[in-house]
Specification:
globular, ATP-binding, Adenylate kinase, five-stranded parallel sheet, nucleotide biosynthesis, Rossmann fold, alpha/beta, kinase, three-stranded antiparallel sheet, 9 helices
Length: 220
C-alpha cells in the first residue's frame, strides 16, 4: 500500500506510522528522517537543505520533494510506503501526484488522524522531560511521576520544554490548520481520505487504522 499519514501535532503520527509500517511491511518515510539522512550523508540535497536551515530559512518545497523522490525510488519502497510529514502543503501534494503519475503509481489512502484541538493542547502541554535524560518523558495527567517534578528513573528535575508550552502548541496548530489541513480537502476530491479517531490507547488507534485501511483496500 502507498499511504500518506496526516494529523495535527500531538496526534501520535510518529508512533502510529512506525507501528503501521511494521504491520503492513512497508517502509516508513518521514520528513525528519529524510533531512537527517541526506545531511549526514552530505548529499547535494542535504547540503542544500543545511544551507537554508543554518540561515534560519525554510527549506524550499523542491528540496523536500527531491529527497522524497529519491527515497521512494529505493528498492524497499517498490511494494509501497507510508509517508509521514510529506506532503506538508497542497503544492507538495500536487508535486507528489505528478511524481506518482510519472512512475505509474498511485496512492491507496490518506489516513487522517483526528484529535480535538483541546486534547492536542492537553497532550503536548502536559509533557515533562528529565533534564538528565531527554528519553525520560512523563505527563502530568497520563503518566505522572511518583513525586511531582522529579524523574522516577534517575531523580533528575522534570521540566516543560519551550516547544511544549500551550502558547507554542496553539501556534503550531494554527500553522497546521493553514498549511497542512488543506491537503485533506485536496485528497477528498480524489476519494482517498480515511479519517479515524486518534483518541484512546495506542493499540486501539493502530487497530482502528488497520481496519480502516483494510476496508479501503477492499473497496479499491
Amino acid at each position: 500500500m502507498r499511504i500518506v499519514l496526516v494529523g495535527p501535532p500531538g496526534a501520535g503520527k510518529g508512533t502510529q506510522a512506525t507501528r503501521l509500517a511494521e504491520k503492513l511491511k512497508i517502509p516508513h518515510i518521514s520528513t525528519g528522517d529524510l533531512f537527517r539522512t541526506n545531511m549526514s550523508r552530505q548529499t547535494e540535497l542535504g547540503k542544500l537543505a543545511k544551507s537554508y536551515i543554518e540561515a534560519g530559512e525554510l527549506v524550499p518545497d523542491e528540496v523536500t520533494i527531491g529527497m522524497a523522490k529519491d527515497r521512494m525510488e529505493q528498492p524497499d519502497a517498490a511494494g509501497g510506503f507510508l509517508l509521514d510529514g510529506f506532503p506538508r502543503n497542497v503544492p507538495q501534494a500536487e508535486a507528489l501526484d505528478e511524481l506518482l503519475q510519472t512512475e505509474r503509481m498511485q496512492l491507496d489512502a490518506v489516513l487522517d488522524l483526528e484529535v480535538p484541538e483541546e486534547e492536542v493542547v492537553k497532550r503536548i502541554a502536559g509533557r515533562r522531560v528529565c533534564r538528565n535524560d531527554s528519553a525520560h518523558v512523563f505527563h502530568v495527567t497520563y503518566s505522572p511521576p511518583r513525586q511531582e517534578g522529579v524523574c522516577d528513573l534517575c531523580g533528575g528535575e522534570l521540566y516543560q520544554r519551550h516547544d511544549d508550552s500551550e502558547e507554542t502548541v496553539r501556534t503550531r496548530l494554527e500553522v497546521y490548520h493553514t498549511q497542512t489541513e488543506p491537503i485533506i480537502d485536496y485528497y477528498k476530491t480524489q476519494g482517498l481520505v480515511v479519517t479515524i479517531s486518534a483518541l484512546g490507547k495506542v493499540d486501539e488507534v493502530t487497530r482502528r487504522a488497520l481496519e480502516a485501511l483494510n476496508r479501503e483496500g477492499d473497496a479499491a
